[in-house]
Amino acid sequence: MNFAADALLPFFGGAALGTLFFGGLWMTVRRAALSKRAALWFAGSSLLRTAAALAGMYWLTGARWEKLLPCVAGFYIARHLVTRFTGNPLAAAAAKTAPEEDAHAS
Question: Is residue 55 classed as helix, strand or coil in its secondary structure?
Fold first, then answer.
């Protein structure tokens, strides 16, 4: 197989891993902002997301650097896409906890 064919699976696999990693980070920030145990959320999520991303990359690439490059590229592109489509998680969490103001009250 040529390099282009060998690079497709790692690229899209890296994109999937990046989506899970940064989507999980977004969910963690939203939940931790409302939790009394935010440090536990961040520590647990960080360990789980990092272990899953590293194990997934190792499995996808077979420890070959030629396949690692497109895998990391897909991961990086997924970061930008997730950031663009999810928005600011702290703003969403703050909107949930803010008291409802009556528009008619003066």
Answer: helix
Rounded to 10 degrees, the C-alpha dihedral 9/70/74/16 comes to 30
Would you say 20 and 81 are in contact if contact means Cβ atoms under 8 Å apart?
Answer: no
**CB-based contact 62:53 (threshold 8 Å):** no
- This prediction's pTM: 0.78
- CA 27, 86, 33, 54 dihedral sign is positive
What pLDDT, on the 0 to 100 scale, is given for residue 41?
92
**Which residues of the chain carry a pLDDT beneath 50?**
none
Determine the straight-line distance between the first and last CA of the chain, rounded to whole angstroms. 72
- One-letter amino acid at 78 equals A
Q: In 3D, which of 37, 28, 22 has the Cα closest to residue 83?
A: 22
What does the alpha-carbon distance between residue 59 and residue 33 come to, in Å, rounded to a whole number?
33
Q: Find out whether 13 and 74 touch, Cβ atoms under 8 Å.
A: yes
